[in-house]
Specification:
heterodimer; A: alpha/beta; Rossmann fold; 2 domains; seven-stranded mixed sheet; globular; B: alpha/beta; six-stranded parallel sheet; two-stranded antiparallel ribbon; 14 helices
């Protein structure tokens, strides 16, 4: 089995599906000759040609709107937005059209598009290159919001997203694009969307997270184990629609729940998870639900970003406090 | 300084409001049957419009955007297109859909607040009306790209208003259509008003057509109240697009004779004199007078047609009004191909204990 990084998993999934299905078109800014600023599309234009791997004019609204048009025509557009911070012109298309085409026409037109964007901080990039605004997308009915956190899940979930008959916003945690390598069978096997993945079993506390924070959360779990605390770690993977059952099952077992995300706290997607756990799992809780998140501030520039991003220490401190409840 | 680029923007009008004919008429306009068919479609579209407004005024339809005065554009678009082409319209030019085979009862359903109205039984690849301004322009790029990618001789026709040409979506779309030489025709129905904002406040540009020049393809103006001119220029643009010669932009000069929608009162921002002046340029009156004058049409024919169109609209309204409503839970049933488990609880709550 080939060893892949997370971004390598993205690349391999795109290549697999382009070879298997000539309805798949890949496009965005600098994704052709240059292979994308993170090289996620490297080699694709050489292999599949410029008609299928398209360098677009520099216009994000166009990229999203064009994806809607292509999808309505039965193609399988996979668009790249270079950074999440530049994705906001696509919100109009996602809210006003991509998410609604099926509903608006009672199924006559559908919108099987994928909009990929790297997100999150910690890569010492300029302003607008480090944010985590996934909650904006997760608020939109009719969309799926999918976030891989390992090479295997990047490969499997992206295949699942491309084959999904509805629009998917696929957010890639760029800080861990190349952090780890993993053996991934390039066999075209998709992973299921709409489900959470339990990535570490535990009995004392449930840590719920997604994207790059999986890395810090697993480190925290490792260290907690040495202190005799057994943490279960859940990678949410699909924010919308949310697989609350997996989270509730875990919380029923552990009685404690800490949610970790990079995005600002207020109105972050952790709030939704906390609300649903409270609604359905309150009687199983031994301690209040806690959140470890970015602050309700503007994502700082690189000199201060390490103070903003949830650290292993912050996660462990919050876990200790949560464990103090009898 | 030397000139590095130079452009011209052409204007076409064949039949003016005083029935003066300029230049040799295009072939189709020399066949009375063709003009009569267009006139019938325009008359039918106006009867639909009248019916819709009456239904709204009597509380039987939601807010409605009238096409009064812009029927020549709507019908020229609908009749110039082939069934396999794809229409991406704004929300006003109902006649374009109708002349492509969409049923009046379907459009009434949509404007009456029933999503099933956009589940057309014909032209099933046409887009639903785009309410957010100019957002359909980039869809047209995607549709045009799909046609080109699959090597299909089909055209995407995108209808926008004058206000839409101020938006980034419009510029982004024409720019990309130019780069990829896509089979897309952009029709700008310049009715001089974007709700209350007049054309001079939208753009300092002398014409809206010239915006296409910046995107690297031809833009031209036509008399939008002259069916012959709009149809002729559309025929040419569609033919160019179909034969691989890329996109075009047609700015059709017209006038919104009614309010923006039934929720608007245009007396607040424009004069009765202006509206009256444009009434004399009414595209239906113009074509009818021309046909009557040519002898191909009689007052008796016209009376019969008016009655027929009225009857057609009445029947459509009846079908619309008699259609049983959707079940409330249908709001969940077309969100995704299959409703995700996460939605089950909410759907059940809406359905109630006895239902589903």
């Amino acid at each position: 089995m080939p060893e892949m990084t997370l971004v390598g998993g993205v690349n391999a999934a795109l290549a697999y599906e382009m070879a298997a299905d000539d309805r798949v078109l890949v496009f965005g800014e600098d994704i052709g000759v240059n292979g994308g600023v993170f090289r996620a599309t490297e080699g694709l234009q050489q292999r599949f040609g410029p008609a299928r791997v398209i360098d677009t004019p520099l216009a994000e609204g166009l990229i999203a709107g064009m994806a809607v048009g292509l999808a309505a025509q039965g193609l399988r557009p996979v668009a790249e937005i270079q950074f999440m911070g530049f994705s906001y012109p696509t919100l109009d298309q996602l809210i006003s059209h991509a998410s609604r085409l099926r509903n608006r026409t009672r199924g006559r037109l559908t919108c099987p598009l994928v909009l990929r964007a790297p997100f999150g901080g910690g890569i010492h990039a300029p302003e607008h290159h480090s944010e985590s605004t996934e909650a904006l997308y997760a608020h939109i009915p009719g969309l799926r919001v999918v976030i891989p956190s390992s090479p295997a899940r990047a490969y499997g979930l992206l295949l699942g997203a491309i084959r999904d008959p509805d629009p998917v916003v696929f957010l890639e945690p760029k800080r861990i694009y190349r952090l780890t390598k993993q053996e991934v069978a390039d066999d075209g096997e998709a992973m299921p969307l709409d489900v959470c993945f339990v990535v570490r079993d535990g009995t004392d506390i449930t840590l719920v997270t997604w994207g790059a924070m999986i890395h810090e959360t697993l480190q925290a779990a490792e260290q907690l184990a040495t202190k005799g605390i057994s943490a279960e770690v859940i990678d949410v993977a699909t924010l919308r629609p949310l697989d609350i059952e997996t989270i509730l099952e875990s919380v029923a077992k552990t009685g404690r729940c800490v949610i970790i995300h990079e995005a600002p706290r207020s109105g972050g997607f952790g709030a939704e998870i906390a609300a649903v756990v409270a609604e359905h799992g309150l009687l199983n809780l031994l301690a209040p639900i806690a959140r470890v998140t970015g602050y309700d501030t503007i994502m700082p520039l690189l000199k201060l970003e390490q103070h903003y991003l949830p650290s292993v220490e912050r996660i462990m401190d919050t876990v200790y406090k949560t464990m103090e409840f009898a | 300084m030397r000139c590095v680029a130079q452009f011209e923007v052409g204007y076409t009008g064949y039949l003016d409001h005083e029935l003066r004919v300029s230049g040799p008429l295009p072939g189709f306009a020399r066949e009375p049957a063709q003009l009569i068919a267009a006139y019938r479609a325009m008359t039918s579209a106006r009867a639909f419009d009248r019916k819709a407004i009456n239904l709204q005024r009597t509380g039987q339809l939601g807010t409605f955007a009238s096409c009064l005065g812009e029927e020549a554009i709507a019908i020229a678009v609908g009749l110039a297109m082939r069934p396999e082409d794809v229409l991406l319209p704004m929300y006003r030019h109902h006649g374009a859909y109708l002349s492509r085979g969409v049923r009046m009862a379907e459009l009434l359903a949509y404007w009456g607040g029933d999503e099933r109205g956009m589940d057309f039984q014909s032209v099933r690849e046409d887009f639903a009306v785009a309410v957010p301004i100019a957002t359909q322009a980039t869809h047209a790029v995607g549709v045009g790209y799909a046609f080109k990618y699959r090597n299909e001789p089909r055209v995407a026709v995108c209808v926008l208003g004058d206000g839409a040409t101020s938006k980034g979506d419009f510029y982004e779309a024409i720019n990309a259509a130019g780069v990829w030489e896509l089979p897309v025709v952009f029709v700008v129905a310049n009715n001089l008003w974007a709700i209350s904002v007049p054309r001079p406040l939208q753009s300092r540009a002398q014409t809206l057509a010239q915006k296409a020049v910046a995107a690297g393809f031809e833009g031209e103006q036509v008399d939008g109240n002259d069916y012959i001119a709009v149809r002729d220029r559309l025929d040419q643009a569609l033919e160019r697009a179909r034969s691989g010669q890329g996109p075009s932009l047609i700015e059709a000069l017209t006038y919104r004779m009614g309010d923006h929608t039934t929720a608007d009162d245009s007396r607040r921002y424009r004069s009765a004199e202006e509206v009256e002046a444009w009434r004399r340029r009414d595209p239906l009156d113009r074509l009818r007078s021309y046909l009557l004058q040519s002898g191909a049409w009689t007052e008796a024919d016209d009376e019969a047609l008016q009655a027929e169109c009225q009857e057609e609209a009445d029947q459509a309204a009846q079908i619309y009004l008699e259609r049983p409503p959707q079940s409330p839970t249908s709001m969940f049933d077309y969100l995704y191909e299959r409703l995700p488990r996460a939605y089950a609880e909410q759907r059940k709550a809406l359905a109630g204990p006895s239902d589903d």
